[in-house]
Specification:
5 helices; 87% helix; mainly alpha; single chain; 225 residues; disordered C terminus
Amino acid sequence: MSGFFAKVKNATKFIGAASQKTKLKAEIAYIDNTMKGRKQQFGVEMYDLMEQKKTFGGKTETEPKVVEVYEGAEKDMAMIIEKKDAKQGEIDALGATNKDLPAETMGEKASKAGKQAKDAAVKTKIQAEMALLDREIKARKQLFGIQLYDAIMQMEAYEPTDTEVKAILDAAKQDIGEQQAKKDVKQEEINVLDAEQAAAGEAVSSSATAPPAEANATTTTNSDV
């Protein structure tokens, strides 16, 4: 019976380890998402700052990889902004048509009211399309943050030349570093559980293939007789 209880004990350990690992993996996924969100925030802050400095003639980073990532985002952003400006032009055109001479007859009033209602519907549609473009702009800045942060982390001893850029980067590094430390601890816990689970699984397999002790004893007794 001791072998049976050992088997049950090891099976329980195996299942318990699997349950703990599932929980830890979910926590790691949450941490990964938190780090991704922080990189995205970094992207919005960094892009806006670099764009502002460029607009006002200030210096931007000269590191080739940083420039490459920034210019890629800038190119994509320009295309989205061009679409948004075109939509704004459509709205402005609608406003211009509503500045016609006031209607005098009942027919003219009805016609003008109908046109205004139609224009209002068109304007609402265009504004919704512009809102989607705003989301595209934000999403591209967020992608810029992920790309830039990951690129910077691959550089050796990179230091921004601009103090404001450095402040934004340092803040992101600190926040993401704290999350990475939490992730590393949980990953180490998973590694320990992997080892425990492997040992428990091996013990269960061994006990399953080993002949029962009572059967061995019976066989020995019969052979002696």
